[in-house]
Design goal:
Radius of gyration: 23 Å
Helix content: 25-40%
Largest sheet: 6 strands, mixed
Number of helices: 9
CATH topology of the largest domain: Heat Shock Protein 90
């Protein structure tokens, strides 16, 4: 069950903007706050990933959301459950199936590397040797008497603001488990500047899928580009017509509402024949490659590949060299 949307509590809107930071300290502090709430007979078993994933996060908001998830999982415990089990791992979603009817990636998660948090209890999962038990606070002052729990829809909104997703899986007699995905942040690259060094290279990205626009904008910005996103070809063309030399490349989805990526490509080539255009699609076949290249596309790429491939392809188009170890996103995430 994917949790619905809601507005975020005003108290959580006061913090500064998101910054790239380690996820593990945020999770660890949330776990410490939660452990102080638990009665002595309830254990907290934890297994955290060792890759130390980075995320772009509002730390305070995300921490409060995680504490709230832990509390809901605890309150849902029934039967013989004596442990809350929290696991964090890192996964690469690079083979995601498109839902043609919805026009977006199933589950709402574009392909890239994610940190995954699973919150459950001992009625549903058994803690193994890799799990460690968090000790209870040793001083009475360390144990707060209560903690404010956010509503589930508010938690979902905060996760969505981090371009992630949360699902709740209630099961009669066994409590509720949660599965949380948060996109990891690309490491900052050297800015992709013109040879003159005056300005960052400007990329226009066109996609009618809002979540994808947000993630691509973040990824390309972290890779050193300046990015402007548009929802449709009809939105992008006026900007290109007003300043044909104002961008260095266009990346467009093939499937656009009322205006295909190939049609946009042809219009762009009439405005500026030398402007590189990359077509991306959830389904790439020989026919699409042929029509795109015939219309002048520089590249045709699958939308189900991870985002580092797009960053690297743009660097190569401009004759720039990314970090030598950044061959795939798996390599990027381990630097």
């Amino acid at each position: 069950m994917v949790i619905g949307k809601a507005s975020v509590h005003p108290d959580l809107l006061q913090s500064a903007g998101p910054v790239n930071q380690g996820l593990e300290p945020i999770v660890a502090h949330a776990l410490q706050r939660f452990r102080a709430l638990l009665p002595g007979e309830v254990e907290l078993a934890v297994e955290l990933v060792h890759e130390h994933p980075q995320v772009r996060a509002h730390a305070d908001r995300l921490e409060q959301a995680l504490v709230s998830v832990f509390i809901v999982a605890w309150h849902s415990m029934v039967g013989l459950a004596t442990q809350i089990v929290v696991e964090m791992s890192e996964v690469l979603l690079d083979d995601v199936v498109l839902d043609p009817d919805a026009g977006k990636l199933q589950g709402g998660l574009p392909p890239r590397r994610y940190a995954r948090l699973v919150v459950s209890n001992s009625s549903r999962v058994t803690a193994g040797p890799a799990h460690r038990l968090m000790p209870a606070p040793t001083q009475i002052d360390d144990r707060p008497s209560s903690a404010r729990r956010l509503p589930l829809v508010e938690i979902s909104k905060i996760i969505a603001q981090h371009h992630g997703m949360i699902t709740a899986s209630p099961e009669p007699g066994r409590g509720t488990a949660f599965d949380i995905y948060l996109p990891t942040a690309l490491p900052r690259e050297t800015p992709a500047a013109h040879s003159s060094g005056a300005d960052l290279r400007h990329i226009i990205y066109v996609d009618d899928y809002q979540a994808m626009r947000g993630l691509v904008s973040e990824a390309l910005s972290d890779a050193g580009f300046r990015v402007t996103c548009y929802e449709s070809g009809r939105d992008a063309l006026p900007a290109l017509k007003a300043d044909p030399s104002g961008c260095d490349a266009v990346v467009t989805d093939y499937r656009l509402q009322g205006y295909s990526g190939i049609e946009l490509l042809k219009q762009i080539k009439r405005l500026r024949a030398d402007l590189p255009v990359i077509i991306i699609s959830g389904y790439v076949d020989d026919a699409l490659r042929a029509s795109a290249h015939d219309a002048g596309a520089a590249l045709v790429m699958s939308k189900t590949h991870d985002l580092s491939e797009l960053c690297i392809a743009l660097r190569e188009l401009f004759g720039d060299s990314p970090h030598p170890d950044l061959v795939t996103y798996s390599g990027w995430s381990r630097l």
